[in-house]
Amino acid sequence: MTTVLLVHGTGVREPGYSEGLERVRAGLRPSRPDVTVAPCYWGGRAGSALRSGGLSVPGYGTGRDVAEPGARGGDGGGEDEDVELWGLLYLDPLLELRLLAAESGGRAELAPGAVPPGEALSSAALALGSDELLRGLLDSAGIGGEFAAAVAAVVTAPDGRGFLRSPAAADGPDVLARAFAAEAVRRRAERSGSAAAFDGTARDAAVERITALLTAALTDGAGTHRGPVTRGVKRLAGRLALGLASAQAVKRRSALTDAAHPAAGDVLLYLARGGAIRELVAEAVRAAEPPVVLLAHSLGGIACLDLLVERALPEVELLVTVGSQAPFLYELGALPSLEHGRPLPAHVPRWINVYDRRDLLGYVGAGVFPGRVEDVAVDGRQPFPLAHSAYWGNPELYRLLAAELP
Fold this sequence. Notes:
The chain has helices at residues 16-28, 43-46, 80-91, 95-104, 117-126, 132-141, 147-156, 158-165, 173-189, 200-216, 226-244, 248-251, 253-273, 275-287, 299-310, 326-332, 395-404, and strands spanning 3-7, 36-40, 292-297, 316-322, 350-355, 374-377. It is an alpha/beta fold. Strands 2-1-3-4-5-6 form a six-stranded parallel beta sheet, sandwiched between helices. The chain is elongated, with a radius of gyration of 24 Å.
């Protein structure tokens, strides 16, 4: 029976790794029930940690906050603007509601006896959970568990209430739908220890379904303010970017260090002393039933390639890297196992390299390893950095694996 070893990337710790392992098992089970997906978790034993309790970080613990050629696949084109808008909404789910309410100004004028649009939308929003089709779409998008709380948070927030009282509410079911989805994604992404993976196509389908249900609650249909709202969003984007680099970052250095050091630390530790990670992978290969497939994400892909370059492992029949930087490090001359200009040894097995063009940490290998790697493009329809973990929520990946696994 084929064994797939899931080798995680930088910054992943428990319980996030086990959640990801179950996600991959669920993704492969319908099409390849003959395959065993086994763990290869190195973050606990070989990953980075603040081994002196943060003594190197000024003020640590005193200011914490609460809180391509040869590739298969296509390109996106006009969808980029929507993906960038989602990137802003993930930072501030109420952004469009606030801009649209401010643009419309004042309160809605109603005919005698008419139900205010905001009241109708609010009632319809709280009933969204009863729609079976929507529940399935939300689960596919990876936000089913957070959606009810997200809806309640949006409609009760000051900006949400202001939007529902404004004239814009009559034309805003789609804007409200995006706010609900963005708030659900934000809540899911903030879960500690988990690399969230979302299906952008399922998210868009869920937003369309929410918009249709909210529109049905209004007697005069729904219009659209996307043009002026999007222009307002773009004007605000620069201010948002500046805010990320403001003096607030200094005040929150402890929290930022806690959030960033496992990911950055794993990379630095691997490049300085990566043997422990590679040996853990080798142990997992020896314990697995062959043929073995190494399914490796990000830094895990670098470690697996280095291991396979350093030693022949005949049990490994296929290497699948996902969102990997190995080709880039090789081109830089920084791949630990292989100097630039030297070819891959003949004993390195077949290699498939999966990347998403929106994942700024995913690279292609066909140009630097001609004839030895097949690049496959997928589209998770997520902005960076979520694009780097969105592979595991993308059905395209499991269709590819089902066809390619021995």
